Structure to design on (306 residues):
């Protein structure tokens, strides 16, 4: 990189571990940036280099072993972000094509939400939202970092909404009148941010099926028992576009140009791996289990990073 950037640790919306990749159109492949290696990559709030006092959102990557800045890319409204597969995402700004290879899908999901949050802030014209000024929070064992929500301030603000000051028309004395709280007690329970989906939740309402991004043993077993990875491998190697993207194996979207070809290939593959035919019935049973709250992922609170 020609210019190093060192954002403050508390300015990150999200921060994960990944390998920074760059696109080589001449060979049609992706290659590690600056020799590769694991980097800390995050979306952070920084001041624009023009010195006009305005702040912007920057995707910044720093290699762990030598602290070399291998990625500096400002987030723009026209940024095209693509999730090629669960552990590889890439984006395009102007003529630059950059990508990240993540060590786990949890890292990829967290970074994807951070980028989309940054784009939403740019569209709304706000880069000073609460999610960009809080301290970092550790997101579980996957070395994913995002911001934490100050639940105590939120609850205190909610309580102050029910406090009114009324002045007497015959005197200068002010009286503070406390009205009864119309909300139940659990309305003011501390809110926490989920490690996986970054949504805010309350522990009392955290049940199975609430978090679609959380790991779920039942869903994992269904995918492995039905050999769904065979379908993903077939579509990735035979029906993906130049960027490595491909349609969902079970998609019924007839607008897809390769709709018939994809299903014919899957039917032929199921003759070699008959267990693939069990996926749809098993997935239907899984959805019933989610409705009965005996299957599905649960939110996991992010612990404060110190």
């Amino acid at each position: 990189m020609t210019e190093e950037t060192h954002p403050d640790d508390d300015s990150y919306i999200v921060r994960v571990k990944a390998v920074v990749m760059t696109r080589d159109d001449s060979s049609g492949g992706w290659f590690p940036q600056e020799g590769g290696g694991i980097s800390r990559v995050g979306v952070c709030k920084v001041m624009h280099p023009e010195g006009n006092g305005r702040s912007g959102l920057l995707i910044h990557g720093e290699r762990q072993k030598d602290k070399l800045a291998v990625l500096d890319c400002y987030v723009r409204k026209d940024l095209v972000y693509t999730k090629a597969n669960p552990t590889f995402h890439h984006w395009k700004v102007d003529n630059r094509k950059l990508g990240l290879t993540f060590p786990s899908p949890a890292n990829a999901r967290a970074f994807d939400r951070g980028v989309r949050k940054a784009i939403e802030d740019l569209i709304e014209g706000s880069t000073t939202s609460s999610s960009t000024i809080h301290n970092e929070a550790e997101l579980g064992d996957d070395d994913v970092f995002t911001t934490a929500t100050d639940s105590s301030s939120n609850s205190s603000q909610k309580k102050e909404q029910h406090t009114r000051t009324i002045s007497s028309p015959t005197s200068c004395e002010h009286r503070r009148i406390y009205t009864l709280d119309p909300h139940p007690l659990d309305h003011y329970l501390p809110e926490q941010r989920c490690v996986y989906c970054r949504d805010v939740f309350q522990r009392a309402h955290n049940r199975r099926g609430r978090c679609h991004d959380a790991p779920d043993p039942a869903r994992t077993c269904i995918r492995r028992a039905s050999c769904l990875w065979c379908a993903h491998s077939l579509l990735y190697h035979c029906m993906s576009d130049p960027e490595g993207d491909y349609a969902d194996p079970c998609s019924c979207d007839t607008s897809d140009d390769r709709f018939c070809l994809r299903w014919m290939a899957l039917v032929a593959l199921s003759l070699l791996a008959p267990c693939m035919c069990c996926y749809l019935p098993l997935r239907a049973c899984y959805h019933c289990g989610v409705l009965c709250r005996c299957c599905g992922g649960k939110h996991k609170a992010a612990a404060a990073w110190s």
In short: The chain has a mean pLDDT of 75.
